[in-house]
Design brief:
Elements (H helix, E strand, L loop, with lengths): L9 H12 L2 H14 L7 E12 L24 H18 L3 E7 L2 H13 L7 E3 L10 E6 L6 E4 L8 E8 L2 E9 L7 H25 L4 E7 L7 H6 L2 E2 L2 H7 L3 E3 L12 E3 L4 E3 L2 E5 L13 E3 L5 E2 L6 E2 L4 E2 L2 E3 L8 E3 L7 E7 L2
Parallel strand pairs: 1-2, 7-8, 9-10
Antiparallel strand pairs: 1-20, 2-4, 3-4, 5-6, 6-7, 8-13, 10-13, 11-12, 14-20, 15-20, 16-17, 18-19
Helix pairs in contact: 3-4
Amino acid sequence: MMTRLPRLSNFIVALALASALLPLLPHAAQEASAAASTPAPPRDAIVIAQWNAENFYDTEDDPDTSGDDSFSSGGWAHWTEARYRLKLTNVAEIVSAMKPDILCIEEVENLRVLQDLQEVLSATFQWPMEFVVHKDSRDPRALDCAMISRIKPGKVKWLNAAPGLHASPCAEFKIDGATLTVIGNHWKSRTGNAKISAAKREVQADKVREEYLRRLEADPAAAIVVTGDFNDSIGDRVPLDCAMFRTNITEVLEGGDSLFCLSALLPEDGRGTFFYSQNKKWHSFDTINVSRGLLPEGKPASPWAVDFTTYRIYVEDRMRMGEYGVPYPMRRDREKGEPYFLLGYSDHFPLVVTLRRRR
C-alpha cells in the first residue's frame, strides 16, 4: 500500500523555487550589465540637411525687440496660432522626409520654435531629433541660426563676425571616436546698399574661413561641413574668393586649404534654391561645402566620405508654385490687398547630403 506524502505548503514551495533561482541571479545581472556596456555599432551613414525656414516665428510678442512685431497677435502678417501650427507641421513633414541626422536651420525665432518643431517631428512623423544647438543672437529681425540633431553635439562655439550679424554655430559631433565639425550660417541679406551688404558678408566669410583653416592646420584630415544660406550664389566673389568655397574639386584636392562646394556637382540650371521675383532669376544662395578629408579621393582622409550621388536640392511637387516652379512659402502675400495667405513651406528649398563611412 502506497503512503501519500503530505503536500508542502505554498510558502515552502516558493522558498524552494527562490533557492533554486538564486544562483542564476548574478549571472543574469552580469549579462544585463554586459549588454548595457556593449558599444553601439558604428554609423554607416550620416545625413546632413540645410534649410532656411523663412520667418519661422511663434505667435508671442517678445517685448525686448520689435523684430517680431509683424508676426505677433494683431501684426501685419496676421500670424495666428493655427497658422504657426500649420507651419510646424509643414516644415516637420519635409524634414522627416529628408531624414537628417543633423539639420542646420535658419530664420527661427527662438528656442521655443525649435522645441515645438522637435515635438512635431517626434510625435507626428516619428523622426525624433532630440538635441538643439541654439543661442539668442539678438538679431534685428529676432531670427536665429540653429541646429537640431539626432546625434549629441559636443563642444559648441559661436562665430561672431560683427554686431548685428547672425552668429554661426560651430558644433563638434563625436561619432565612433572621430570628430565631425558642422558650421551653420546665415549671411547678410542683399537688402539695402549692395556694397554695404556685400562687405558684411565678406566679414562673415572671413570669420568662417579663419575657423575652418584653424581646424585644418591642426588636422589636415579634419571632417568639416560648412552649410547655410549665404545670400550669394556659388560663383559670386564672397563665397568664392573670401570663404574659398571652390567649384573646382581639383583645387581642393591639391591645396587642402579650401572647401568644395557640393552644388558644383549639379547642372548650372539646377542649382537654384531661391527665386528673386523682381528679375525672375534663380540663385544658389544655399549650399553645403566640405573639406578635402570628406571628398572620396581626399588624402589624408577622414573616416567618412561624401556620397556625391546623394547631394540634392530636396524638392517635392507640393513645395513649388507658379509658372517658374518657385518655392512655395507660408506667409501673407504682399501683392494682395486684403490678407491673403500662401500656406506652403519656405521661400528657400532645402538641401540634403549623405556622408558614408569609408571601408
